[in-house]
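Support request, please re-run this one:
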Amino acid sequence: MGDCGTALTVCLTEAGFDRDTLDEAVRIFESGNKSDLKQFLRSKRCDLIEQMHESQKRIDRVDYLIRQIGKI
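Re-run finished. Output below.
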């Protein structure tokens, strides 16, 4: 896999991706197709942003409850 492939795996692992995602990223990397790898990573980035937005919505709901409890 080489140093770059190892760095890719470490980085994606630290970002919290599962084994299937890691394997797919390495497969694309090893194919040598940089544009496919960039597109794959952009897609995963979008997934993370969506998860972040969903987390923010949940935090907002908890904040709302905290404010409401303060009014009681």
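The two ends are 60 Å apart (CA to CA). The chain has one domain: 2-71.
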